[in-house]
Amino acid sequence: MLDVAYPAVGLWPAAFVAVVLTLMALRGRSVLGAILVGTVFGVVFFAIHLSWVGEFLGPLPWVALVGLEGALVAAGGIAIALAYRWTEKLGVRARFLVRPGLVAGLWSAREMVAGTWPYSGFPWARVATSQANGPFAEAVSWIGVDGVSFAIVAVCALTIECLWARRFRMLALPVSLACALALIPAFPTRQTGQMAIGWVQANGPSGYFDDRSPGEILELHEARSEALYGRGADLIVWPEGAVDSDPYQSPQTARRLDAVVRAADAPLLANAAVTRSGETYNTSFLWGTGDSVQFYDKRHPVPFGEYVPDRAFYERLVPGLVGLIQREYTAGRTEPVLDVDGVRIGVGICFDLIYDDVIRAGAEGGAEVYIFQTNNADFRGTDENLQQMAIARLRAFEAGRAVVNVSTTGTSQVVLPDGSVIDAAAPGESAASVSDVPLYAGRTPAVVIGSIPIAGLAVLAICTLISLGLVRLSNRSAATERKS
Fold this sequence. Notes:
Blueprint: H1 13-26, H2 31-49, H3 54-57, H4 59-86, H5 92-114, H6 140-164, H7 172-183, E1 190-201, H8 216-225, E2 235-237, H9 251-264, E3 268-276, E4 279-287, E5 294-297, H10 311-317, H11 319-323, E6 337-340, E7 343-349, H12 356-364, E8 369-374, H13 384-399, E9 403-407, E10 412-415, E11 421-425, E12 431-441, H14 445-449, H15 452-483
Helix pairs in contact: 1-6, 2-4, 4-5, 4-15, 5-6, 5-15, 6-7, 6-13
């Protein structure tokens, strides 16, 4: 049921129902029972939600990722089940006070672990992401994505306490909390100007295994960009992988980019695989800004997609599969902010946008607008691009900035800080447009404080659970001594 809350269906109330049912299924369970419930919930949800993973390298990576996520959910399920069991002897009022925060903290801890481990983690499908098109999205600007996840689970846990204790009148409390969360307006940032941004969704053969000739992708973007010439754009944006050769190594490619810049009378933000000092990076670069060289190297390349961690180990396990992945991108260390005629632009490349650190670094660097370049060609016809677009929409709320999301094959959108879409291209559409994108100043609490409060609550929940376990163990030891 939880998958229904996310795109493509996007029925956001389903997230609350799914969380309530999951917590109720964990309540009163033994450790083995919690493992079973957590594994079934995690595997079924992620198998459906991440079904698109198998489109790239086949079913094995999908099975492995679903298995990993299922195991992490099972571990979180054990902690939550123990929290319910070890607080059973508390009074009704104490349970009302303790359990919602404890359960929400443990749920958040599991989401944070999954978002950082292994190999930089996979913070996709956080509960808050299901609310990208719902009334709770604006709260992200105050408490961040992790904060909204915590709040949703806490409301669900409080609802369960009301139902379990048959205090039906007290259901007004979680309902009131949910309404208060929904009524929180987005943190106000101030508009400081406007930038005409031209962007291209060429819809070419940009997938890793697509048949194409050398230079075909670049040629498609050159041709599609002609529709932008003479339209007064301040910047032209191409998606991830739009340049299929290194312009810093290929004079011919450099000349072709020079020609685009001259014809558009605007600098170009493009992307290519770039080699420096023997390392290959997934790099977004500004072209046509004079002598200055500005670029951003993708901080979070995709494990088993853009590089193979511990390659020697996995080659022994699945040599045929690992052999398909010939690229080996290095994680970037550059700041995700570029300067275009005094306008600070926060940038992110595809997988980057699911990581909070990239968004915060852009805000700290003075970003007035965010531009995300992405290549969704390997997942045509799936929900992947819609799920990613939901995350991008939350980033607009979170940072209080407009977001320009430019894809090779869709979905491309220009999203304002209030979530409204002012320009877009659908999946499978070839498009080029110039969008008047507002620029903003001021930092939201979400980017200033980050996930520190929720991380603190997660640690507190873990410490509380350990303390409850120690008290229980001590009581058992004392009881055994009295019997002897």
